[in-house]
Amino acid sequence: MIVSVILFLLIIGLLIISHEFGHYIVGTMCGVRVNEFTVGFGPKLFSFKKGDTLFALRLLPLGGACIFDGIEGLGDDEKELDEHALPNVAPLKRAATLAAGPFANFILAFLFALILVGYTGADLPVIDSIIEGSAAEDAGLMPGDKITKVDGEHVHLYREVSMFSSMYSSGKPVKLEYERDGVRHTIELTPRYSAEDGRYYIGFRGGSAILDCNPFQIFQYALYEVQYWMRYTVKSLGMLITGKLGMDALSGPVGMAEVVNDTYEEVRPYGLTSVILTMMNLIVLLSVNLGIINLLPVPALDGGRLIFALIELITGRRVPPEKEGIIHLVGMVAVMLLMVVVMYHDIARLFN
Fold first, then answer.
1. Sign for the pseudo-dihedral over CA of 123, 126, 130, 134
2. Hey, how many other C-beta atoms are within 10 angstroms of the C-beta on 212?
3. How much is the average pLDDT of 221-230?
Protein backbone atom coordinates (compact mmCIF):
# COMPACT_ATOMS: atom_id res chain seq x y z
CA MET A 1 0.00 0.00 0.00
CA ILE A 2 2.89 2.37 0.80
CA VAL A 3 4.41 1.75 -2.64
CA SER A 4 1.02 2.42 -4.28
CA VAL A 5 0.65 5.71 -2.40
CA ILE A 6 4.14 6.80 -3.44
CA LEU A 7 3.43 5.89 -7.08
CA PHE A 8 0.14 7.79 -6.97
CA LEU A 9 1.79 10.91 -5.52
CA LEU A 10 4.59 10.75 -8.10
CA ILE A 11 2.12 10.39 -10.99
CA ILE A 12 -0.29 13.11 -9.87
CA GLY A 13 2.62 15.40 -8.99
CA LEU A 14 4.11 14.95 -12.46
CA LEU A 15 0.76 15.68 -14.12
CA ILE A 16 0.19 18.82 -12.02
CA ILE A 17 3.70 20.21 -12.42
CA SER A 18 3.75 19.66 -16.19
CA HIS A 19 0.33 21.31 -16.58
CA GLU A 20 1.11 24.34 -14.44
CA PHE A 21 4.63 24.69 -15.87
CA GLY A 22 3.08 24.89 -19.34
CA HIS A 23 1.00 27.84 -18.16
CA TYR A 24 4.00 29.39 -16.39
CA ILE A 25 6.57 29.18 -19.19
CA VAL A 26 4.26 30.43 -21.95
CA GLY A 27 2.70 33.07 -19.68
CA THR A 28 6.06 34.54 -18.74
CA MET A 29 7.15 34.46 -22.40
CA CYS A 30 4.00 36.46 -23.19
CA GLY A 31 4.78 39.01 -20.49
CA VAL A 32 2.14 37.87 -17.97
CA ARG A 33 3.03 38.30 -14.30
CA VAL A 34 2.75 35.08 -12.26
CA ASN A 35 1.94 35.80 -8.61
CA GLU A 36 2.20 32.21 -7.41
CA PHE A 37 3.17 28.80 -8.75
CA THR A 38 1.88 26.25 -6.28
CA VAL A 39 1.74 22.46 -6.12
CA GLY A 40 -0.90 21.19 -3.70
CA PHE A 41 -3.47 22.94 -1.54
CA GLY A 42 -3.61 24.01 2.11
CA PRO A 43 -0.79 25.15 4.39
CA LYS A 44 2.63 25.79 2.85
CA LEU A 45 5.32 23.19 3.51
CA PHE A 46 8.03 24.96 1.58
CA SER A 47 8.24 28.15 -0.46
CA PHE A 48 10.64 30.61 -2.05
CA LYS A 49 10.26 33.72 -4.16
CA LYS A 50 11.93 34.38 -7.49
CA GLY A 51 11.16 37.71 -9.10
CA ASP A 52 7.43 38.39 -8.80
CA THR A 53 6.55 34.71 -8.35
CA LEU A 54 6.13 32.77 -5.11
CA PHE A 55 6.88 29.07 -5.65
CA ALA A 56 5.18 26.90 -3.02
CA LEU A 57 4.69 23.26 -2.08
CA ARG A 58 1.54 22.76 -0.01
CA LEU A 59 0.25 20.02 2.26
CA LEU A 60 -2.44 18.36 0.12
CA PRO A 61 -0.84 17.17 -3.16
CA LEU A 62 -4.13 16.84 -5.05
CA GLY A 63 -3.91 19.87 -7.32
CA GLY A 64 -1.99 22.99 -8.11
CA ALA A 65 -2.23 26.42 -9.64
CA CYS A 66 -0.37 28.97 -11.68
CA ILE A 67 -1.95 32.17 -10.37
CA PHE A 68 -1.64 35.02 -12.86
CA ASP A 69 -2.03 38.64 -11.85
CA GLY A 70 -5.63 39.72 -12.41
CA ILE A 71 -6.99 36.24 -13.12
CA GLU A 72 -9.65 36.52 -10.41
CA GLY A 73 -11.64 39.18 -12.28
CA LEU A 74 -13.97 39.81 -9.35
CA GLY A 75 -13.11 42.88 -7.31
CA ASP A 76 -10.30 43.94 -9.61
CA ASP A 77 -10.24 47.55 -10.66
CA GLU A 78 -9.13 47.39 -14.28
CA LYS A 79 -7.21 50.70 -13.94
CA GLU A 80 -5.08 49.25 -11.14
CA LEU A 81 -3.90 46.35 -13.27
CA ASP A 82 -0.86 47.07 -15.44
CA GLU A 83 0.03 45.63 -18.84
CA HIS A 84 1.46 42.47 -17.21
CA ALA A 85 -1.89 41.41 -15.70
CA LEU A 86 -3.55 38.53 -17.58
CA PRO A 87 -6.72 40.48 -18.54
CA ASN A 88 -4.62 43.26 -20.10
CA VAL A 89 -2.32 41.27 -22.38
CA ALA A 90 -3.26 40.82 -26.04
CA PRO A 91 -6.01 38.21 -26.52
CA LEU A 92 -3.76 35.98 -28.65
CA LYS A 93 -1.11 35.92 -25.88
CA ARG A 94 -3.83 35.28 -23.30
CA ALA A 95 -5.19 32.40 -25.37
CA ALA A 96 -1.70 30.90 -25.75
CA THR A 97 -1.09 31.18 -22.00
CA LEU A 98 -4.38 29.46 -21.16
CA ALA A 99 -3.96 26.67 -23.75
CA ALA A 100 -0.36 25.98 -22.71
CA GLY A 101 -1.30 23.90 -19.64
CA PRO A 102 -3.34 21.28 -21.52
CA PHE A 103 -0.81 21.35 -24.37
CA ALA A 104 1.97 20.56 -21.85
CA ASN A 105 -0.01 17.51 -20.75
CA PHE A 106 -0.21 16.30 -24.36
CA ILE A 107 3.56 16.78 -24.73
CA LEU A 108 4.15 14.80 -21.52
CA ALA A 109 1.89 12.01 -22.80
CA PHE A 110 3.78 11.94 -26.12
CA LEU A 111 7.18 11.72 -24.39
CA PHE A 112 6.10 8.72 -22.34
CA ALA A 113 4.41 7.18 -25.39
CA LEU A 114 7.78 7.37 -27.18
CA ILE A 115 9.37 5.28 -24.44
CA LEU A 116 6.50 2.79 -24.40
CA VAL A 117 6.41 2.29 -28.17
CA GLY A 118 10.19 2.11 -28.36
CA TYR A 119 10.24 -0.62 -25.72
CA THR A 120 7.08 -2.64 -26.42
CA GLY A 121 6.26 -1.89 -30.07
CA ALA A 122 2.79 -1.20 -31.46
CA ASP A 123 -0.27 -3.47 -31.60
CA LEU A 124 -1.35 -3.54 -35.23
CA PRO A 125 -5.07 -3.85 -36.09
CA VAL A 126 -4.63 -7.34 -37.57
CA ILE A 127 -7.19 -10.13 -37.08
CA ASP A 128 -5.82 -13.21 -35.27
CA SER A 129 -8.89 -15.43 -35.39
CA ILE A 130 -12.55 -15.44 -36.38
CA ILE A 131 -15.25 -16.58 -33.98
CA GLU A 132 -17.32 -19.38 -35.45
CA GLY A 133 -20.86 -18.40 -36.38
CA SER A 134 -20.17 -14.68 -35.94
CA ALA A 135 -21.02 -11.71 -38.13
CA ALA A 136 -17.32 -11.45 -39.05
CA GLU A 137 -17.32 -15.03 -40.36
CA ASP A 138 -20.47 -14.45 -42.42
CA ALA A 139 -18.93 -11.25 -43.86
CA GLY A 140 -15.89 -13.20 -45.10
CA LEU A 141 -13.24 -11.72 -42.79
CA MET A 142 -10.17 -13.91 -42.34
CA PRO A 143 -7.16 -14.12 -40.00
CA GLY A 144 -4.42 -11.82 -41.27
CA ASP A 145 -6.81 -9.13 -42.51
CA LYS A 146 -5.71 -5.66 -41.38
CA ILE A 147 -8.52 -3.31 -40.31
CA THR A 148 -7.88 0.22 -41.63
CA LYS A 149 -11.20 1.99 -40.91
CA VAL A 150 -14.21 1.53 -38.64
CA ASP A 151 -17.30 3.51 -39.68
CA GLY A 152 -15.10 5.82 -41.72
CA GLU A 153 -12.58 6.53 -38.94
CA HIS A 154 -8.96 5.51 -39.52
CA VAL A 155 -7.49 3.01 -37.06
CA HIS A 156 -3.80 2.30 -36.51
CA LEU A 157 -3.86 0.16 -33.34
CA TYR A 158 -5.87 -2.93 -32.49
CA ARG A 159 -7.03 -1.23 -29.29
CA GLU A 160 -8.81 1.34 -31.45
CA VAL A 161 -10.79 -1.46 -33.10
CA SER A 162 -11.63 -2.87 -29.64
CA MET A 163 -12.66 0.60 -28.46
CA PHE A 164 -15.09 1.10 -31.34
CA SER A 165 -16.41 -2.41 -30.86
CA SER A 166 -17.04 -2.02 -27.13
CA MET A 167 -18.42 1.52 -27.29
CA TYR A 168 -20.54 1.41 -30.40
CA SER A 169 -21.50 -2.20 -31.06
CA SER A 170 -25.21 -1.78 -30.35
CA GLY A 171 -26.69 -4.00 -33.01
CA LYS A 172 -26.45 -1.33 -35.67
CA PRO A 173 -24.56 -2.13 -38.89
CA VAL A 174 -20.82 -1.40 -38.75
CA LYS A 175 -18.82 -0.44 -41.84
CA LEU A 176 -15.31 -1.91 -41.91
CA GLU A 177 -12.48 -1.24 -44.33
CA TYR A 178 -9.70 -3.83 -44.32
CA GLU A 179 -6.61 -4.75 -46.27
CA ARG A 180 -5.85 -8.26 -47.57
CA ASP A 181 -2.81 -9.03 -49.73
CA GLY A 182 -2.32 -5.33 -50.40
CA VAL A 183 -5.92 -4.84 -51.64
CA ARG A 184 -8.46 -2.73 -49.74
CA HIS A 185 -11.98 -4.05 -49.21
CA THR A 186 -15.08 -2.52 -47.59
CA ILE A 187 -17.85 -4.50 -45.94
CA GLU A 188 -20.85 -3.81 -43.73
CA LEU A 189 -21.86 -6.22 -40.98
CA THR A 190 -24.27 -6.28 -38.07
CA PRO A 191 -22.82 -7.21 -34.66
CA ARG A 192 -24.53 -10.09 -32.88
CA TYR A 193 -25.70 -10.05 -29.29
CA SER A 194 -24.19 -12.30 -26.64
CA ALA A 195 -26.68 -12.97 -23.87
CA GLU A 196 -23.87 -14.39 -21.72
CA ASP A 197 -21.79 -11.18 -21.86
CA GLY A 198 -24.69 -8.77 -22.29
CA ARG A 199 -23.17 -6.98 -25.30
CA TYR A 200 -22.80 -7.11 -29.07
CA TYR A 201 -19.76 -8.60 -30.84
CA ILE A 202 -18.41 -8.23 -34.36
CA GLY A 203 -16.76 -11.63 -33.98
CA PHE A 204 -12.98 -11.56 -34.30
CA ARG A 205 -9.94 -11.42 -32.03
CA GLY A 206 -6.62 -9.67 -32.49
CA GLY A 207 -3.83 -7.76 -30.84
CA SER A 208 -0.98 -10.25 -31.14
CA ALA A 209 0.57 -8.65 -34.25
CA ILE A 210 3.21 -6.39 -32.69
CA LEU A 211 5.30 -4.03 -34.82
CA ASP A 212 8.91 -3.67 -33.67
CA CYS A 213 9.23 0.00 -34.60
CA ASN A 214 12.23 1.62 -36.25
CA PRO A 215 13.20 5.16 -35.08
CA PHE A 216 10.77 6.87 -37.49
CA GLN A 217 7.92 4.50 -36.60
CA ILE A 218 8.50 5.13 -32.87
CA PHE A 219 7.52 8.79 -33.39
CA GLN A 220 4.67 7.81 -35.73
CA TYR A 221 3.12 5.23 -33.40
CA ALA A 222 3.71 7.37 -30.30
CA LEU A 223 1.44 9.93 -31.97
CA TYR A 224 -1.09 7.17 -32.70
CA GLU A 225 -0.88 6.15 -29.03
CA VAL A 226 -1.72 9.68 -27.85
CA GLN A 227 -4.44 9.93 -30.51
CA TYR A 228 -5.95 6.67 -29.24
CA TRP A 229 -6.24 7.98 -25.68
CA MET A 230 -7.62 11.29 -26.97
CA ARG A 231 -10.32 9.41 -28.87
CA TYR A 232 -11.03 7.22 -25.87
CA THR A 233 -11.40 10.24 -23.56
CA VAL A 234 -13.55 12.27 -25.95
CA LYS A 235 -15.86 9.34 -26.75
CA SER A 236 -16.18 8.47 -23.05
CA LEU A 237 -17.11 12.08 -22.27
CA GLY A 238 -19.67 11.94 -25.08
CA MET A 239 -21.20 8.81 -23.56
CA LEU A 240 -21.35 10.53 -20.15
CA ILE A 241 -23.13 13.54 -21.63
CA THR A 242 -25.64 11.37 -23.53
CA GLY A 243 -26.28 9.16 -20.51
CA LYS A 244 -24.75 5.98 -21.96
CA LEU A 245 -22.34 6.01 -19.02
CA GLY A 246 -23.37 6.81 -15.45
CA MET A 247 -21.70 8.86 -12.73
CA ASP A 248 -19.92 5.71 -11.56
CA ALA A 249 -17.69 6.03 -14.62
CA LEU A 250 -16.19 9.27 -13.25
CA SER A 251 -13.19 9.15 -10.93
CA GLY A 252 -11.49 11.78 -8.79
CA PRO A 253 -8.23 11.60 -6.82
CA VAL A 254 -9.54 8.75 -4.63
CA GLY A 255 -10.56 6.76 -7.70
CA MET A 256 -7.20 7.48 -9.35
CA ALA A 257 -5.38 6.24 -6.24
CA GLU A 258 -7.47 3.07 -6.32
CA VAL A 259 -6.64 2.52 -10.00
CA VAL A 260 -2.91 2.98 -9.32
CA ASN A 261 -3.08 0.54 -6.40
CA ASP A 262 -5.07 -2.10 -8.30
CA THR A 263 -2.80 -1.79 -11.34
CA TYR A 264 0.34 -2.06 -9.23
CA GLU A 265 -0.94 -5.14 -7.41
CA GLU A 266 -1.88 -6.76 -10.73
CA VAL A 267 1.49 -6.26 -12.46
CA ARG A 268 3.83 -6.52 -9.44
CA PRO A 269 4.33 -10.30 -9.82
CA TYR A 270 5.76 -9.72 -13.33
CA GLY A 271 8.69 -7.64 -12.08
CA LEU A 272 9.94 -4.06 -11.91
CA THR A 273 10.02 -3.52 -15.69
CA SER A 274 6.33 -4.40 -15.99
CA VAL A 275 5.46 -2.04 -13.12
CA ILE A 276 7.38 0.85 -14.70
CA LEU A 277 5.90 0.34 -18.18
CA THR A 278 2.37 -0.01 -16.80
CA MET A 279 2.72 3.17 -14.73
CA MET A 280 4.02 4.97 -17.83
CA ASN A 281 0.91 3.83 -19.69
CA LEU A 282 -1.22 5.22 -16.86
CA ILE A 283 0.64 8.53 -17.11
CA VAL A 284 -0.14 8.72 -20.85
CA LEU A 285 -3.84 8.03 -20.21
CA LEU A 286 -4.18 10.43 -17.25
CA SER A 287 -2.13 13.20 -18.87
CA VAL A 288 -4.28 13.13 -22.02
CA ASN A 289 -7.36 12.97 -19.81
CA LEU A 290 -6.29 16.01 -17.79
CA GLY A 291 -5.45 17.99 -20.92
CA ILE A 292 -8.80 17.33 -22.61
CA ILE A 293 -10.89 17.95 -19.48
CA ASN A 294 -9.17 21.30 -18.94
CA LEU A 295 -9.96 22.29 -22.53
CA LEU A 296 -13.70 21.76 -22.04
CA PRO A 297 -15.59 25.07 -22.45
CA VAL A 298 -16.57 25.10 -18.78
CA PRO A 299 -16.24 28.36 -16.80
CA ALA A 300 -13.26 28.38 -14.41
CA LEU A 301 -11.44 25.71 -16.43
CA ASP A 302 -8.78 26.64 -18.98
CA GLY A 303 -11.24 25.97 -21.81
CA GLY A 304 -13.83 28.30 -20.32
CA ARG A 305 -11.31 31.12 -19.94
CA LEU A 306 -10.00 30.39 -23.42
CA ILE A 307 -13.48 31.01 -24.86
CA PHE A 308 -13.45 34.60 -23.53
CA ALA A 309 -10.00 35.23 -25.02
CA LEU A 310 -11.16 33.88 -28.39
CA ILE A 311 -14.32 36.04 -28.28
CA GLU A 312 -12.16 39.13 -27.82
CA LEU A 313 -9.75 37.97 -30.52
CA ILE A 314 -12.59 37.51 -33.04
CA THR A 315 -14.83 40.46 -32.13
CA GLY A 316 -12.22 42.92 -30.84
CA ARG A 317 -14.39 43.48 -27.76
CA ARG A 318 -13.72 42.36 -24.22
CA VAL A 319 -16.35 40.86 -21.96
CA PRO A 320 -16.30 43.11 -18.85
CA PRO A 321 -13.90 41.52 -16.31
CA GLU A 322 -16.45 41.65 -13.50
CA LYS A 323 -19.02 39.73 -15.59
CA GLU A 324 -16.43 37.19 -16.68
CA GLY A 325 -15.38 36.83 -13.03
CA ILE A 326 -18.96 36.06 -11.95
CA ILE A 327 -19.30 33.42 -14.70
CA HIS A 328 -16.05 31.75 -13.64
CA LEU A 329 -17.10 31.88 -9.97
CA VAL A 330 -20.36 30.08 -10.78
CA GLY A 331 -18.38 27.58 -12.85
CA MET A 332 -15.94 27.00 -10.01
CA VAL A 333 -18.78 26.30 -7.57
CA ALA A 334 -20.31 23.83 -10.04
CA VAL A 335 -16.96 22.09 -10.57
CA MET A 336 -16.39 21.83 -6.81
CA LEU A 337 -19.87 20.34 -6.31
CA LEU A 338 -19.16 17.81 -9.07
CA MET A 339 -15.85 16.91 -7.39
CA VAL A 340 -17.68 16.31 -4.09
CA VAL A 341 -20.17 14.00 -5.84
CA VAL A 342 -17.36 12.13 -7.65
CA MET A 343 -15.38 11.75 -4.41
CA TYR A 344 -18.49 10.38 -2.69
CA HIS A 345 -18.88 7.75 -5.43
CA ASP A 346 -15.14 6.92 -5.23
CA ILE A 347 -15.33 6.35 -1.47
CA ALA A 348 -18.58 4.38 -1.79
CA ARG A 349 -16.89 2.08 -4.34
CA LEU A 350 -14.03 1.46 -1.89
CA PHE A 351 -16.44 0.23 0.77
CA ASN A 352 -18.49 -1.81 -1.68
1. positive
2. 9
3. 96
